[in-house]
Each structure stands twice: as structure tokens, then as C-alpha cells.
Amino acid sequence: MSKYVKQFLVGTGIGLITPFAGLFVYWLFVWRNIATFIPGFFVKMYDVKLIASHFGLACVLNLPLFYLFMNKDKYKTAQGIIFGTLIYAFYIFYYKLFVVGTGD
After folding, report:
1. Taking all residues of the chain, what is their mean pLDDT, rounded to a whole number?
2. In this structure, are residues 78 and 70 in contact, taking their beta carbons and an 8 Å threshold?
3. What does the pLDDT average to over 43-55?
4. CB of 78 within 8 A of CB of 69?
5. Number of domains, the chain
6. Is 93 helix (H, G, I), strand (E, B) or coil?
7. CA-CA distance, 25 to 68, in Å (whole number)?
């Protein structure tokens, strides 16, 4: 595997993990009670009306990482971060159109 493919895959991993980790930290501060946090986190992950909006906002966390790698001339890693963000965007689009849109 070439160096550029590895950098792209690292960027994609960063782009996929960062929003999820951001939501995890956010909900940790919201609940502040670790006993109810872990079950509550996974219940909220499957809440139909909130998860797409929260992931959409959490994808903003990829922006500083994108600029960081762009300034360090790691363009393939930056492209991978954008690709990870686009994966979330397609998921959110699908979720809002077919899962939330089919109710009521």
C-alpha cells in the first residue's frame, strides 16, 4: 500500500472518530453521572429525532483538524478527513430522508 493511501485512510479514520468522540465528551458533561451515562449515551444514540442533528453539529469538529493537516502540507490526510465527513453527511441525509421522514 502506498504512502498516500495510508495517509488517506488515517485521515478517514480521524474524520470518522472525531465527531463520535466529540459527542461522547459532550454527553459526558451533560450527564455528569457516570452510572447513568453509559446506558444513556447508547439510548440517545438511537433516538430517532436527535442523533442526526447531533452528528451534524459534531462534524464541525473535523474543521480544525482539516486546517491543521492542510497547514502541515498533509493533503492526503486532509482529504481523508473530508471523506470521513462526507460519509457522515450521506448517513445523516439517508437517516433524515428515509428513517425520520417515514414516521408520522
Report:
1. 84
2. yes
3. 72
4. yes
5. 1
6. helix
7. 21
